[in-house]
Amino acid sequence: LAAMATQTVEATGRTLYQPSRQPNATWSSPVSGKLLLEAGWGMYQSRYRTAHRV
User: Fold this and answer.
1) Has residue 51 been placed in a domain?
2) Residue 6 belongs to some domain of the structure
3) Rounded Cα distance, 30 and 35, in Å
4) CA separation for the pair 35, 2 (Å, rounded)
5) Total domains in the fold of the chain
6) Tens digits of per-residue pLDDT, 10-44?
7) What is the spatial distance between Cα 51 and Cα 54, in angstroms, rounded to a whole number?
8) Which domain holds residue 26?
9) Is 8 in contact with 2 (CB distance < 8 Å)?
10) Is there a domain that residue 10 lies in?
11) Is residue 50 part of a domain?
């Protein structure tokens, strides 16, 4: 749950967010002028959560 205009932050529960994944890939090709083949792949993952309420 999140805070709304009619509800304070203290009155809400703990908010859990799903992991954020951002995949990316790259490729290059010109095979000549001394070659050049490239490939790349990566994945960025992050997790967010709110602090426990006291």
Assistant:
1) yes
2) no
3) 7
4) 54
5) 1
6) 666 666 666 778 899 999 999 998 999 999 999 98
7) 9
8) 15-54
9) no
10) no
11) yes
